[in-house]
Specification:
Dna Ligase, domain 1; 19 strands; seven-stranded antiparallel sheet; nine-stranded mixed sheet; alpha+beta; Protocatechuate 4,5-dioxygenase, Chain B; Glycoprotein, Type 4 Pilin
Length: 491
Amino acid sequence: MKILTFTIILLAMFFKLAHANPQIKEPNVSGQFYTADAKELSKQIDFFLHQAQTDISSKPIDIMIVPHAGYVYSGAVAAHGFKAVSKHKYNTIVILAPSHFYGFNGVSIWEKGGFKTPLGVAHVDHDFAAQLIESHSDFTFDPKAFEKEHSLEVEIPFIQKLFSHAKIVPVVFGQPSIEVLKEFAIQLNKIIANRDDVLVVVSTDLSHYHDDAFARKMDQRSMEAVKDIKPKVIFEECQKRTMEMCGCTPVVAALFLAQQRGIKEGEILKYANSGAINAEMGRVVGYTSIIFPKEGRPSTKEVTLTMKQKKSLMDIANQTFHSFVKGGEVPRIQETDSRLLSKDEGAFVTIHKNGRLRGCMGNIIGGRVPLCYLVREMAVTAASRDPRFKPVSEDELAICDVEVSVLSKPRTIKDVNEIELGKHGVIISQGKRSGVFLPQVADSTGWSKDEFLAELCSQKAGLSRDCWKDPKTKIEIFSAQVFSEHDITAE
């Protein structure tokens, strides 16, 4: 009897092992990088998504870059990217991640089975993975690349929350050559083909363990290169350590893919570093979320300036305003921040006296001079050349304050329903006549959209009040980041 019982037990164990899936990957960092409690993890992700200050994209997103540190550090940044893509339907999500622990020169693709997290098992799209493995000799399945790796795993709970029916294609990059990365992009593009239900999620952090000021400067250069889709520049500079991304190789592969798919530009949604969490400003790690919508440029891209950058522009505007009004002198600028030296944005400077408009001048379209010089120039013109007002006198300085608006590049629209009052500035033009209202005009007046457009047509462009309904009228929208000295001190 004992022998029979023992035999049954052995057979049961054998049956269980025979039917278990050996390729269900157990989590590496559950309980470390994120909570191991399913309910708490679900609530935490919901909180991150709710708090993320970004719009849900109306355009399909092909590629997204998000960070992979512990959720307490980078979860809020990652949520910006995931929230932006959350309303689209994806059946296959390809996750491109770097190898932190296992050295190899190729690309490792998990071929079948699934990845387990506290939220369940994310199943692998084995047909997609098999096609990718078969497409090149450097693309293989090496389980050692996944044994300790966290960079891929931490993206999966977000995917499970937002796209519960999607299958994943887990990919870990070693240190392949740039030629192999380009070939990976070519083959991935062929497999995706005309499908619009495939999302490529790229996992990377930015610079590691520099002081806050240095890190922000380096990270800004890196993000701009990513946004502008410069894979060769990023690969070379990461080799020289003049840029830092632990996910350099998957980022480069993804940018080659963006080129393959005709994407012209990415959109930076959020940047932060670990110093905001642990206050260790001498040793920070940088995080970003960047999306790559189809059809080139995103719709009305948001302007993103750090608090330090806003303060620099505010100082330039204030110092110029006071110096020019007092003695006609324009101070010199010694600026090294590449973001403030860019020529991408336009800018307005607005002067208020006892809360009422006293002058406002600007340049809607960038490209002529760097942003910091444009702000200086507009501070002078707002104080002295606004045709609606006399030049500001020295005895008015004490009761005047300055506001700066940094503008995104305008985008032509066909439907005024795209205008969001308080968020979008609007330009109306017909023939040689044109007018512009900044986004804050809607907030200060309380106008409806029809009133806003009618006043813009008549008051600013000198056209009929209903010219915005005329098909011959060109309507453009832009976003703006608006700040005053009070806003900066309040933050």
